[in-house]
Amino acid sequence: WADALSAFLTAHARYDGLRARFANEQGDEFEIPLVDAWGEEYSKKQYARAMALQRQMAGGDRPSGGESIAAWDSPATAMLTLTASSVPDGTRVPPVEHADAVHDSFSYDGVRDTLRNTMEYHLGLDADQWGYWLQAEPHGMDGDGSGMNACYTHLHVGVYFDTEPLGLDDDLHSVGSEFERVIDKHVEVCEYAGRSAHDYDTITDYVEESNGCISLNASVENMGSYLAAYMGGYTEELLDKPIEYLAWGSIYWSAARRRTSRSKVLTEAIAADACEQRAESDESNQTDAHGDAVVWDDGRGPDVVCECCGSGWAIDQSRLDAPVSDDDLSDALDAEGESDETERELTLAERWPTATAAASVGESTTKTRIRKRVETELKYCNDVPTVAEMLGRNMIDPKHAEFVESVMNGEDDSEPESFRRASLDSEWHLEAIVDRDGEEHAPNGGGVDMAPLKLPVQRILDETRLRHSLGRGEMWRCSKCNFAYHDDGTVHARHFVEEHGITDPESADHVLLVDDYYDEDRECMRHPAERHDSG
Predict the structure, then answer these.
(1) How far is CA 430 from CA 339, 363, 437, 439, 446, in A?
(2) What segment(s) does the record annotate as region Disordered (predicted)?
């Protein structure tokens, strides 16, 4: 854990002063600072997103000057806390394993599904009338950090929902018991979760009490501030945060675990708020407000979305009719592939004028369907039919007779086609990475660079005399504190790092002594100073 913390803080510190420079073919340039997901900038962005949710759901003034109209008539919030013991049976659970168990409970083992069923089946809300924000947090932040779970993780699941369809008149007491099944599911599926930390029976009032595993709030004046403060609205620099937070952060950094996630509804609300602010900003090229121009989106979520931001939040879904299907479009393209003016088939670039680059491999979906029908017919028929018979049996348009004949003859005349348009002079590209000393480094084209990583303990073990096996009568000894041990060197390598803060192998080798009871005087075990003197 200590090694992971050291590597985590080192990796974060390397971002200090790092900038990316972008340029275009016209000679224009600009630079932006590079940050990771653990700095002050990221924390402020998370806080701003929470505030955006409050504006979109309950109304309020945007920083850019406009005013958001409340999308929900009576918004409320619920806070569910999911945790687990770090010593469930008296044995300490490794921190990454513990974090995986808590997160997997929600993401993969049914807790999220139970929450969805609670909101949409038991409470009867529509999918766009509720959403969740999951935020991981460290234990030990509110006390002295001495608890058994200090530095380990737990989850806050903030649930936003509109109470107007429920007809509760701001009385949420009956809603609290509905969330009990979510807590029950977590205790059931999370290996290290126990009832004692999730005992909602001890909560006398879900609305009045805020320290239990279920807490409701029907009249939060500032929902964004409330949830941001409750769910990790720490905006100070990473190195200024408590050690419990740093140790907890090293778990997520080393395991490459996400510590926050939001449902699509909340993500779209945040995107819509940002879209509105761009339209109101003098520094943005966007002029259309959110939803002024809409397009159809076949992806997951709303069908009609804003053309500027891709969010369907607060957009009337009846504004556009569903587009023609791929099959119908393919038939239309096949029918109109011939240009009346040139009597030639249009190229891929001509058929797709808005694309920067595209490639086509194989044949159209219409021809693929016809090919399958013909090949199936040939496979099961006793006598080879004529082209006319093949068209009639499979209800194929006669205009495809030539293609059907080619399939029957075993021919395949499809050829791949592609194009890439020349980039505009105004398009930006990453030109260089500039470090804190002003030195420029060429970008590597993106992606992930893999490099061997040696943490301090491993470096000392590999680059000092500790890499050698002890001989007869030999023992390692620390000259700083006289600590001695007879092992493979791992204990002493860790001793140098943890007890004396020595991370440099050369320094560690000078502090390291070898007791030689039989005076074997092996050369590989000689002190660096002795080797230097003899040289």
Answers:
(1) 41, 36, 19, 16, 10
(2) 320-346
What is the count of structural domains for the chain?
A: 4
Half-sphere exposure of 233 (CA within 13 A, CB side): 13
List of E strands, 47-110: 60-61, 67-68, 75-82
| Residues whose CB falls within 8 Å of the CB of residue 208, separated by 6 or more in sequence, listed in order | none
* 213 exposure class (CB count in 10 Å sphere: 0-12, 13-18, 19+): buried
Q: Determine contact, residues 105/193, Cβ cutoff 8 Å.
A: yes
**Cβ atoms of residues 25 and 31 within 8 Å:** no
Report yes or no on 296 lying in a domain.
Answer: no
Consecutive H or E run containing 95: helix 95-107
Q: Which residues pair with 136 in a beta bridge?
A: 155
Domain housing 493: 456-534
Q: Which residue has the tokens 């058994």?
A: 148
pLDDT exceeds 70 at position 106: yes
- Residue 325: pLDDT band (50, 70, 90) is low
The token duo for 405 is 């004949």
CA distances to 125, 145, 370, 385 from 393, in Å:
50, 78, 12, 9
**One domain, residues 235 and 369:** no
- The dihedral through the CA atoms of 65, 70, 76, 80 has a sign that is negative
Is residue 364 one of the residues assigned to a domain?
A: yes
246-262: pLDDT as tens digits: 999 999 999 888 889 99
Radius of gyration, CA atoms only, the chain: 32
d(CA 74, CA 218): 8
